[in-house]
Amino acid sequence: MKKCKYCGHVLEGDTLICSNCGRRTYLKRFYRSRNDRKFLGICGGLGEYFGVDSNLIRVITALFILWSGALPGLIVYFIFGVMIPYSDE
After folding, report:
1. In sequence order, what are the beta bridge partners of 2?
2. Where do the domains of the chain lie?
3. Which pTM does this prediction carry?
């Protein structure tokens, strides 16, 4: 049994739009992780968003930072850390 997170109406099957209030029942968004974080939670959030292990994301991020010459990669990482909100959970 799935309920609309806005109005609480019980939804049938895999409907994406609530028949009662007309809002989307599922919207995938990227947030920083509060649970799976080492520094700012960005890699943990990417792991949750794409459904992969966050350690793999961390390795890819570290390689990107080193490949970019450290400073540009770190600047992008910190900009993401400022712009992307934490999850509500």
Report:
1. 11
2. 1-28, 42-83
3. 0.64
